[in-house]
Amino acid sequence: MPEQAPLIVSISGIRGLVDQSLTLDVVRRFAAAFAASLEPPARIVLARDTRASGAVFADAISQVLQSAGCHVLDLGVCSTPGAKLMVTELDAKGALIITASHNPNPWNGLKMIRADGVFLNAEQGQRVVDLYHAGEFPQLAGGSYQQVEPARVNRRHLDRIMRHVDADLIRGAGLTAAVDPCNGTGALFIPELLTALGVPHRLINGTPDGRFAHEPEPLPENLTDLSDSVRDSGSDVGFAIDPDADRVALVDENGNPTGEDYTLALAVEAIGSRTPGPVVTTLSTSQTVTDAASRHGCPVILTAVGEVNVVETMLREKAVVGGEGSGGVVLTQIDPGRDAAVGVAVILELLARTGKKLSELVRDLPAYSIHKRKVPATREQLERTVSLLRERYPRAWLHPVQDGAKLYLSGDMHCPWLHLRPSNTEPVVRIVAESTSADQAAQLCDEAGDLLQQT
Fold it and tell me: pTM of the full predicted structure?
């Protein structure tokens, strides 16, 4: 990322380059604005991922919250899913989680959570942004601070997962795993989960010190260490976890990365086969997820990209499973958001129930090629590019959910499709294309990228 990358404020929270766009002053003011958006006195959960900059930010936020009359419940270094489920466990009014998720180490950020453990939605987030810009933060007495033991978080997280997967089935299947949490918060919980499920495992990059051993986004090109570990250990599956442990990508028994979309597709296969019901995912998610749902009679509802959009729709529609194609699996019965640990448990249950290898489960799903690009571009360039694409493909059908634009080029809700949208986490436009042909998917990404750069 260029050094002049701006502070990004979106439905996913705020992110920026430490000491450049994300300064102590920015963090303090957002913490004060978040506190001002709540009825005092508010209990607020505070947590952070393993990045070195997180400790300084956490101290500053704690002081700001206490000066605003809040009761701070500090989880210390903790996964995002663990922190979110503790909001309701501790009867808090919300949470501030210091993390930049999959962004590399110069970045950090702040995720803002409401009283039900769900991300702030667009309206709620805008209220915090307005308060941030107004800059009028009342000073109230009566603030307090309390540390919460990490073991308590892990115990509650584990208890919820074990109530919603067939642990005995997994224990009896003789499965083994390799895990790469990239020296992030997944190292604090995933090994404990696997031990509880009776799955021997090899852990690599498992020191939770924030010194990422490779680019932290769990994309295939970043999983070479995990692939080698799976092959060397003869493991049945490899799990790659992002730094705040809300996403998981898979590597099959041969050491081949499956691609992030298959995590959700296989989770839908696992849950939909035993508990049919609505499935919720986003516009950018592979057709593979829809196909997995459809063969078990599960209706699919598409939303704009953004975890809160998925979770709010899941709660409204009483969905049995949902998530995003970036490796984020959501079971709202466990916690109200993407959770790598949930993805791990559900995939292990599917392997145990079917007796199939991961590569076989992937081959059982319809094969599509999905390509992704990100191009530095403005929203104005995006709009002009979409207009040009609609001229080139007059038969294309535009999906009614507005999140950038998703075009089904053949006129119905099947491949090939092309989705362009402004990123929630980086100053870029994300391009996603899918087709039954790898060449066509790549060509569509190239075409859209060229148009963006020419407009």
Answer: 0.93
